[in-house]
């Protein structure tokens, strides 16, 4: 996750002229926001193929130094490009074909000029050498940056979390969600008495001459920048396997040595249950080549691809609490389930723009009730997702302005999940619904996407008209109100507090104990229903709506 929504700092909105906003509070954005969030020609001119990040982490100085190699394919003719590195980090030099390249800096953007035009289709590379003290996270993972703590024995324990803020807070890269590197070598040097864990598979460990060891991890699948990570500490390590849909999936567990006994028992309880459930609902785990790792982290958690960060203190629920208030949230470890769910939605399928983060968080929030459904049934699942409604604030829309690297409301988690639950009710066929979830992960396998692509796929495969449903729940703060009144045997009803043209069907109790689908619109409609009373009429609680007796 991302930054777990229950404590997310809510962001302002802008008057951006786009369908993404039907409600448009004005917020000023800056040149720095645009440089960070816009896919300009200086970024779109090249496609990242490979990084080799080779750095040393000095825990005492809380600093980083080293280099990153960029291998790319030119997507257009160009002689200048942009990459990103926070301005507090110093660039030593940029090397291209043995010579230094000139560059300029503006805010956190770096503009590099090449000696000759690089032609479209050409493959080329350059290396950036840099050093400095990255931002220290004040409240990780919600505030991004480096994290330095000590374990129970007083030994150093360090990591990084930077979703939203951006990976350029600690290493130079093309810091835009739309372009994931195809593969990557991560070489991290740490004090020799400690261990280091990163994404992918460990290729080698090399002794250095200065009292450090270098750990070399290779990521064989596309990965977004904020997922690239390190964990440094006095770790215990053990392995297991899971027989999944694509064969044997390697499982690697890394906990602090002092916590290894409780970790082994606790993690074993949920990890394989999670994998079985999510492969059923979403399809094969997307990164068999890189394996699955669960790593104890000095912060709450994050969905670092193939190296999931865990900081839930080996408790069930969310730090021992049930966020839904239903009681079902204490049947599983929230961090194991939620952060692992992001391997499908967030890591396999990644939003092109931070404004569309509901694609990550809405579906992953809904992975929690699906996990419950796998082991405790549909009533448990429905009670859990309905319980999450109490934390929906409807403050600003779920979808944020595009091209300025801003997230929408934290409602993207529970409101996104409840919108998906609504759509499931409209589909009315659990196997069809499951095929859509699996189809999303197959169709958009290892791709970056827009909201429009996700909306279009669900509408096409469901055969339903859903455009107004998406507009209502993603682009406004309005909760649909089903207004009704009963006079004798006549029921009158319509939608209020909705976007123009809102026409979502909804189930109501026309007979005691039986929910029937009706098709309200913004205009009053009537139906003759014998024996219906105010006491017996209600909407199916599976739908996230309000009702009002007029």
Q: What's the structural blueprint in terms of helices and strands?
A:
Elements: H1 31-37, H2 41-44, E1 46-58, E2 63-74, E3 78-84, E4 90-96, E5 99-100, E6 103-106, E7 109-118, E8 123-132, E9 145-150, E10 156-161, E11 183-191, E12 195-197, E13 201-207, E14 212-219, E15 231-233, E16 235-244, E17 247-256, H3 260-282, E18 292-296, E19 301-302, E20 308-310, H4 334-341, E21 349-351, H5 358-376, H6 378-387, H7 414-427, H8 430-443, E22 447-449, H9 451-462, H10 467-475, E23 481-487, E24 490-496, E25 506-511, E26 514-518, E27 525-528, E28 546-549
Parallel strand pairs: 1-11, 17-18, 18-20, 21-22, 23-28
Antiparallel strand pairs: 1-2, 2-8, 3-7, 4-5, 4-8, 6-7, 9-10, 10-15, 11-14, 12-15, 13-14, 16-17, 19-20, 23-24, 24-27, 25-26
Helix pairs in contact: 3-4, 3-5, 4-5, 5-6, 5-7, 7-10, 8-9
Mean pLDDT: 95
Total of DSSP H or I helical runs spanning 4+ residues: 10
Q: What overall geometry do the principal axes of the alpha carbons give?
A: globular
pLDDT < 50 stretches: 1-26
| Extended strand count | 28
What is the percent of helical residues? 10-25%
What kind of sheet is the major sheet? 8 strands, mixed
Strand numbers in spatial order across the main sheet? 5-4-8-2-1-11-14-13
What percent of residues are in strands?
Answer: 25-35%
Structural class: alpha+beta
What are its keywords?
alpha+beta; 32% strand; disordered N terminus; eight-stranded mixed sheet; 550 residues; five-stranded mixed sheet; 28 strands; single chain
């Amino acid at each position: 996750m991302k930054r777990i929504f229950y404590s997310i700092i809510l962001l302002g909105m802008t008057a951006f002229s786009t369908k993404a906003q039907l409600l448009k509070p004005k917020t000023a954005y800056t040149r720095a926001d645009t440089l960070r969030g816009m896919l300009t020609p200086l970024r779109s001119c090249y496609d990242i193929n490979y990084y080799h990040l080779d750095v040393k982490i000095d825990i005492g100085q809380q600093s980083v130094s080293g280099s990153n190699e960029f291998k790319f394919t030119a997507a257009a003719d160009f002689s200048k490009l942009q990459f990103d590195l926070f301005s507090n980090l110093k660039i030593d030099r940029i090397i291209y074909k043995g010579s230094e390249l000139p560059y300029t800096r503006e805010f956190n953007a770096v503009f590099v000029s090449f000696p000759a035009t690089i032609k479209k289709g050409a493959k080329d590379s350059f290396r950036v050498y840099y050093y400095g003290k990255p931002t220290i996270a004040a409240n990780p993972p919600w505030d991004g940056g480096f994290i330095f703590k000590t374990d129970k024995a007083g030994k150093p324990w360090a990591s990084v979390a930077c979703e939203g803020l951006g990976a350029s807070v600690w290493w130079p890269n093309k810091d835009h969600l739309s372009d994931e590197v195809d593969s990557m070598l991560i070489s991290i040097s740490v004090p020799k008495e400690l261990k280091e864990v990163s994404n992918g598979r460990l290729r080698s460990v090399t002794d250095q001459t200065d009292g450090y060891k270098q750990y070399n991890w290779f990521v064989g699948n596309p990965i977004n920048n904020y997922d690239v990570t390190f964990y440094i500490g006095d770790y215990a390590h053990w392995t297991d396997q899971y027989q999944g849909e694509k064969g044997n999936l390697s499982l690697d567990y890394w906990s602090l040595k002092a916590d290894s006994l409780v970790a082994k028992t606790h993690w074993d309880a949920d990890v394989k249950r999670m994998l079985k459930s999510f492969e059923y609902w979403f399809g094969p785990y997307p990164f068999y080549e890189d394996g699955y790792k669960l790593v104890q982290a000095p912060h709450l958690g994050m969905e670092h691809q193939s190296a999931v960060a865990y900081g839930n203190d080996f408790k069930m629920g969310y730090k021992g609490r049930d966020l839904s208030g239903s009681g079902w949230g204490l049947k599983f470890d929230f961090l194991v389930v939620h952060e692992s769910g992001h391997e499908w939605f967030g890591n396999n399928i990644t939003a092109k723009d931070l404004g569309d983060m509901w694609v990550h968080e809405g579906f992953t929030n809904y992975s929690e009730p699906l996990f419950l459904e796998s082991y405790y049934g549909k009533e448990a699942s429905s009670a859990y997702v309905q319980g999450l409604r109490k934390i929906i604030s409807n403050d600003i829309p779920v979808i944020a302005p595009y091209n300025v690297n801003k997230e929408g409301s934290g409602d993207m988690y529970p409101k996104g999940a409840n919108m998906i639950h609504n759509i499931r009710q409209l589909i009315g066929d659990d196997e069809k619904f499951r095929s859509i979830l699996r189809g999303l992960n197959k169709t958009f396998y290892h791709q970056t996407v827009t909201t429009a692509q996700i909306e279009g796929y669900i509408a096409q495969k469901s055969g339903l008209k859903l455009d107004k449903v998406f507009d209502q729940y993603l682009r406004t703060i309005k909760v649909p109100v089903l207004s009704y009144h009963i006079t004798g045997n006549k029921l009158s009803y319509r939608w209020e507090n909705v976007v123009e043209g809102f026409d979502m069907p909804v189930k109501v109790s026309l007979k005691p104990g039986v929910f029937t689908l009706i098709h309200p619109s913004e205009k009053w409609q009537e139906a003759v229903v014998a024996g219906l009373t105010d006491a017996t009429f209600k909407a199916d609680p599976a739908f996230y709506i309000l009702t009002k007796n007029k």
